[in-house]
Design a protein that fits this description.
heterotrimer; A mainly alpha; B mainly alpha; C mainly alpha; B: mainly alpha; 3 helices; C: two-stranded antiparallel ribbon; 5 helices; 9% strand
């Protein structure tokens, strides 16, 4: 059973490696990628069931016991995210099959996607800080390759900055790890948590925790998001969807993990700073989303707003807010992928990214228009779509914590999301048709199916949230009570 | 010994910062390389410097070095090697396509 | 101006074998002494790089008709599969084992599965390093 946890990272890795051997059989590339991601999703669902029934699952690599070796730890939070990652990336691959073009497929597109997913899954599952660094790098290297794939001028310009930022932040990550090792002499997260709890969170440790905060903020786009809109709006839509859905979420996961498991003793310092950063992120993201009139940039700024929104929960740190954040994370992965895919389809049919150039698409592409509308509703949090429950729970949590400024900002940001996306909807789908019947680029059904699946998924999560509740409660429970995690890892 | 290593790491970080903030593609890449090496030195200092003993038990009496910082540094060297290689290839491609190695000419492609 | 490369070429022909021997020595000594797959692989790769410097790319490609991307992939596959091998036997992922064999002529020899793992590591290193060097140098005319 326990080794199943490793398979979640190893299956995509192994399939990706085998695909490198057969660069000319693109058909095999396409479908084996899709199928292996689905199999992985099935496996993670199985593991999730096991965790909810029997508690946290751990694997010690090479039978080196927990504080000494590297271990993978699967709790509900991480495996829920792994499950969503696999489903969302499988659907993005389905979209890529139809849109990305043969030349990019031949440049090992599918192996890189698989390596990216392996890195993301590994980051969610690892129980060791240094191993988190390694899996982060696996993910980032794959993302460097994906962001430059195709090599258009625009991509080369933006990717250089993306890589430079990430290399510097990785170095900072290592600095933080080095300090932590020097102070506490271990890097296993459970062991670290135990040692911090016994010695108390000294001022030095708080400073180190702030270093971690900076590193993960860079990766997740909390406050330090300036690199994000440029680099997320240049690659092809399928890649942008995978990035928008997965990459920032890994940073958010790392923030949740470190600040609930390790550095939760000095909340009046660390969590206050997180709160301030989240507030500024919400404001900055909102300004960006309103200010630009380029579809892809608006969509990218929406990613930033949701990062700020989710981290409000970490700032207030109570169980209701954390539950809300977990639901909202899952919802956000699905809907952000959907948003990027739809934006990609719109740009594909309209041949322009600027709002002013596009209008009246609803007459030519009614299905696309209505799917976009549902996405807007879901992102804003209209019941019964998936965004609603996360927002409500998070809102209740923030009210319980009496942080009314954060409450006001996070709810106002909802209006900004609504406004910025309705602006796209109204200017692109309403108005006079600019594309005549003859010029109309046919939007194949196969290009709409992936988006349709994601729309069904967001409706499904909305209606089926009762079914998800046990997993989410278990996830929030483990996050709020570090002892459960420590006991599972250190004493079997 | 640790003090010396920390000072060296500090000097390296200083020069890396200078290089990364410059306008030249290659200088930025060299800067990231220097920065990672400064970090490796820091890891070594943080793990505690234990003289000329090896991380193998029983090789020289009863003392042995802490193996973990060495493993961390090795892993990090491997990763940074891969990243630096990719980065260099990318810089080469950028230079090929844009005919410039000046970062200030690589501003935002689309202005509003 | 054409540079006379006779010296470099004839020295390379000898040196490459010394480097290869060193690589193999480092590779096998890695089990209990300093050395190992990564260092061995790097030294091995350096011999290829030396050949690329002394002769041109076409000659080396003709002499060693291997796609180094595949070498890297093969190495990575070996690493992952040895890790999974332990799973088949019901142990934790990446568990390694060893046994001492009595082989005629050589005497007692300790054979371990770590060596297979290390082989994967060194193949990956060789493949990646040479691929990178080739991808930078190939279109410089």
């Amino acid at each position: 059973m326990n080794n199943l946890l490793v398979l979640l990272m190893v299956v995509p890795l192994l399939v990706g490696i085998f695909l490198v051997f057969i660069p000319n059989y693109i058909h095999i590339h396409r479908w084996s990628t899709f199928v292996s991601l689905l199999i992985n999703a099935g496996l993670s669902f199985w593991v999730l069931q096991h965790i909810v029934n029997n508690g946290i699952v751990t694997v010690d690599f090479g039978n080196w016991e927990a504080p000494f070796g590297i271990s993978f730890v699967g709790d509900s939070f991480s495996v829920l995210l792994v499950l969503t990652t696999n489903i969302v990336s499988a659907i993005c691959v389905l979209y890529a099959i139809k849109t990305i073009g043969l030349s990019r497929e031949k440049m090992y597109f599918y192996p890189f996607v698989l390596f990216l997913v392996a890195g993301v899954n590994g980051s969610f599952l690892t129980g060791d800080l240094f191993n988190l660094f390694v899996t982060f790098e696996v993910m980032l290297l794959a993302s460097y390759a994906l962001i430059t794939l195709g090599g258009t001028k625009k991509q080369l310009q933006e990717s250089f900055k993306y890589i430079a930022i990430n290399v510097v932040s990785s170095s900072l990550f290592l600095v933080a790890i080095a300090y932590l090792y020097g102070l506490l002499g271990t890097l296993n997260m459970a062991h670290l948590s135990e040692r911090i709890a016994t010695t108390g969170q000294t001022p030095l440790l708080t400073v180190v925790s702030l270093l971690f905060l900076i590193v993960f903020s860079l990766k997740s786009g909390l406050l330090l998001y300036q690199w994000l809109p440029g680099s997320y709006s240049t690659p092809s839509p399928a890649v942008a969807a995978i990035f928008g859905a997965l990459l920032t979420k890994v940073g958010i996961y790392a923030l949740f993990r470190t600040f609930t498991l390790l550095f939760y003793h000095e909340q009046q310092i660390t969590h206050l700073i997180i709160g301030i950063m989240a507030a500024i992120t919400l404001i900055g993201g909102s300004i960006g989303a309103i200010a630009y009139s380029n579809i892809r940039l608006i969509v990218s700024y929406n990613v930033i707003i949701s990062v700020g929104f989710i981290l409000v929960a970490l700032a207030v740190m109570n169980i209701t807010a954390i539950e809300g954040a977990v639901i909202y994370l899952i919802h956000d992965m699905v809907v952000k992928a959907l948003l990027f895919l739809l934006a990609g389809s719109m740009i594909y049919v309209a041949k322009s990214e600027r709002l002013g150039d596009i209008s009246g698409l609803i007459r030519n592409y009614p299905v696309l228009g209505w799917m976009f509308f549902i996405t807007v509703l879901s992102l804003t949090g209209i019941p019964p779509l998936s965004g609603f429950f996360g927002k409500v729970l998070l809102g209740i949590g923030v009210i319980e914590a009496k942080s009314y400024i954060l409450l006001a900002l996070s709810m106002l940001s909802g209006f900004v999301v609504l406004y910025s996306l309705l602006r796209i909807f109204m200017s692109c789908f309403w108005g006079e048709t600019i594309i005549s019947e003859e010029e109309e680029i046919p939007l194949k059904k196969s290009q709409l199916i992936p988006s349709a699946i994601l729309v069904l998924l967001t409706i499904g999560i909305g209606f089926g949230v009762e079914g998800l509740t046990p997993y989410i409660q278990d996830a929030a429970e483990t996050l709020m009570n570090p002892e459960i995690y420590i006991d599972a890892v250190l004493e079997k | 010994m640790e003090t010396l290593i920390i000072i060296v790491a500090g000097v390296l970080v200083t020069s890396a910062t200078y290089l990364i903030l410059s306008q030249n593609l290659i200088r930025v890449i060299l800067g990231t390389g220097v920065l990672t090496h400064a970090v490796h030195l820091l890891i070594m200092a943080m793990g505690g410097f234990s003289g000329n003993v090896v991380p193998i038990i029983g090789e020289k009496g009863n003392t042995y070095a802490d193996a973990l910082p060495q493993a961390l540094i090795l892993t990090s060297i491997v990763i940074n090697f891969a990243v630096a290689a990719f980065f260099l290839v990318l810089a080469y491609q950028v230079y090929n396509r844009m005919n410039t190695d000046d970062l200030s000419k690589l501003r935002r492609y689309y202005h509003e | 101006m054409k540079i006379n490369e006779v010296l470099l070429q004839s020295v390379t022909k000898i040196i490459v074998f010394i480097i290869l021997t060193l690589a193999i020595y480092l590779f096998f000594s890695g089990h209990n002494n300093p050395g190992g797959g990564f260092v061995g692989g790097l030294v091995l790769a350096s011999s290829f790089v030396l050949m690329l410097l002394a002769f041109d790319i076409e000659t080396v490609k003709h002499g060693i008709p291997v796609d180094f991307k595949l070498v890297a992939a093969l190495g990575a596959a070996i690493v992952v599969i040895t890790g999974l091998g332990a799973v088949v036997f019901g142990e934790a992922f990446l568990t390694q084992t060893f046994r001492v064999f009595d082989i005629p002529v050589f005497g007692l020899i300790e054979l371990s599965t770590v060596t297979i793992f290390e082989l994967g590591v060194s193949l990956t290193v060789v493949g990646v390093v040479v691929t990178i060097i080739l991808s930078i140098s190939e279109d410089v005319s």
